[in-house]
Amino acid sequence: MVKTVADGRRARGDASRRAVLTFATDLASVEGLDGLSIGRLAEASGHSKSSIAGLFQNKEGLQLATVAAGRDVFTQVVVERARERERGLARLDALMRHLIEYSRTRVFAGGCFFAAVSADVDSKPGPVRDAVREAMAQWYDYIAVQVRHAVDAGELDLDADGIEQVAFTLPALYEHANARSLLDGSDRPYELATRGMRDVLMAAGADASALGMLRG
């Protein structure tokens, strides 16, 4: 009986945490992590300050949990969906398309979660910046791995420098499109970024027929 009660409390606590973090990730995508405090989140979510403090202890704990939650959403919406495709060029094609759609459809109100929070913490050392940097480093590494797989499979013709350049350029096109779309209120930057990604991959030797998801 005691275990059942404890399990019920834990389940309710987990549900409250998920609900609060949904508001937190959305808020951080618009106002950045610096603007994310227990008080501000209570105001936005309708939860009490005491309940939020009980879940996250302090502002840093809230920020770290928000980064982890944003990472989980990004992984589910972009990375996991692309894993349905063969690794290499097919998966790279899918990754870039899902990445564009993740921002374009405003999964988070402020567009790309990590674009927003990276700009907020990039010059502020500490555990929160470390968490953001680790998430971004793993994402960039994953893109580079898919480029290397494509080279190994003969789908792209690149040397080591070319692999690094393509792995840098693809997310750079996306990040600029995200920023320009938010500023201009237009989908046109995504169209241009998609075309740019396709051009980069074709210049690297990709067969146009293998880039079905990056058609404009």
Description of the molecule:
The chain has 216 residues and is an all-alpha fold. It has one domain (2-207): Tetracycline Repressor, domain 2, CATH 1.10.357. Helices cover 75% and strands 0% of the residues. The chain is elongated. Mean pLDDT is 90; it is low at 4-8.
**How helix-rich are the residues, as a percent range?**
over 70%
Please give the CATH architecture.
Answer: Orthogonal Bundle
Question: Secondary-structure element order, as H and E?
Answer: HHHHHHHHH
What is the number of domains? 1
Q: CATH top level?
A: Mainly Alpha
Give average pLDDT, whole number.
90
Per CATH, the superfamily is Tetracycline Repressor, domain 2
Treating each run of at least 4 consecutive H or I residues as one helix, how many helices?
9
Distance between the termini: 59 Å
Could you tell me the CATH topology label: Tetracycline Repressor, domain 2
Shape: elongated
Strand segment count? 0
Secondary-structure blueprint:
Elements: H1 2-31, H2 38-45, H3 49-56, H4 59-82, H5 89-104, H6 113-121, H7 127-152, H8 160-184, H9 188-203
Nutshell version of this structure?
The protein has helices at 2-31, 38-45, 49-56, 59-82, 89-104, 113-121, 127-152, 160-184, 188-203.
Label this structure with key terms.
single chain; 216 residues; mainly alpha; Tetracycline Repressor, domain 2
